[in-house]
Amino acid sequence: MNARELREQFPILQQQVNGHPLVYLDNAATSQKPRAVLDAVSRYYEFSNSNVHRGVHTLGSRATDAYEGARERVARFIGAGSTQEIIFTRGTTTALNLVAASYAREACGEGDEIVLTPMEHHSNLIPWQQVAKATGAVLRYIPLQSDGTIRIEDVEATITDRTKVVSVMYVSNVLGVINPIKEITEIAHRHGAVMVVDGAQSTPHLKVDVRELDCDFYAFSGHKMCGPTGIGVLYGKKHLLERMEPVEFGGEMIDHVDLYDSTWKELPWKFEGGTPIIAGAVGLAAAIDFLEEIGMDAIDQHEKTLAAYAFDRLSTIEGISLYGPTSGRVGLITFNLGDVHPHDVATVLDAEGIAVRAGHHCCQPLMRWLEVTATARASFYLYNDEADVDALVDGLLKTKEFFGHAIG
Length: 408
Ligand code: 7TS
Prior knowledge:
This protein is 40% helix and 16% strand.
């Protein structure tokens, strides 16, 4: 896999920013889109655009075929057993909220437990807080080791027969750790709980097989994996989705409507009220084609090698703090440079054309656990290479010079 060659397929990455070639290292927030995805979306609008599932006319059939074809593509990509298990959503956040509002509100009662970790993104935290408030369920947290990893003994000790839902991120957007989802799922199932996986940071980077993980629900976003914004997926096991009530009601999701009562379509459409994100689904399918042509294993390997290189190079900068484990991490590195505020770090880097993120990364409880208010983060994707890491290191050395007094 040649990252420099791949980069040529991303028009946005060809520009200069502040007089420097753009070094885009904010991929955990959103990835850039290759020409193949941009073309698929514009081709859809130029050739097939219509509403789905209702038009008898030719464009209506083309749009429906494109939309339902995208669902098949997604099902194959994550190893789902059936397209009925693939619900298109706006993204990970909407998918997790759907499980919380539909499944968990029904399944949880007073004193039942929902198990999370302190590293969760707000999108996999607040929906469960809301369920707890509404049902009287209690939130319990699997503790973290000092390097941010999870020990199976602690998972065993936290999940009990009162646990109804376990919801954990596969990959942390701050620590870069890969959580032992398969093992956690096995423990959750032993206690009769369902396992929800926040796959926002895993699906773009690792080969995912939901049946091998055996998780009950799995959520991810298209925009972090070369697809458009506004499209995401909730995978759910069919027998659970069948039991669940929709949370959005209206057009597209109904079967029969009376003045005083209505019935719903079958899976997956009962969860897709309103005109769906058709062009988004088409773009996501094109993104999956693009990723699989390169190969998820090759992408994973490339990013792990790059992360190790970045970890080594950044470690040599005096005064830098790197968060998360030293090995077994995905391609993102979260750091602070002495007492310099991460927003200042990001501003100096931006002047050099280097895009990194600074802030709490939607993980305020994890920031408290790390005893910081914010961090900077460089996150890589398939088009990044060692030259980008070198540019980052040079930029950080400049930042250090600029704020020399603040670095001990
Ligand atoms: N879960 C994780 C682990 C995430 O990293 C994100 C987004 C989400 C959920 C929410 O995804 P959305 O597509 O529904 O917004 N993470 C980040 C980030 O790290 N920086 O910006 C967005």
